[in-house]
Amino acid sequence: MPIYSHSQLSMYEGCPLKYKLRYRDRIKRDIEGVEGFDLRKSAYQHRTWWGNDRSHF
What we know:
Helices cover 56% and strands 0% of the residues. By secondary structure, the chain is an all-alpha fold. The longest helix has 14 residues, at 39-52.
């Protein structure tokens, strides 16, 4: 008999299709979540925008 974690059961209760894709079919998301957010990259992009394109002010 398989053992299910709390997060698996919670996901199944919320959306059975999401559970199936994630745990049975083992399809990974192609969109990065919060863990993929890079503050340094964001700060660099903001600094670049601020330095180059202020024509709309």
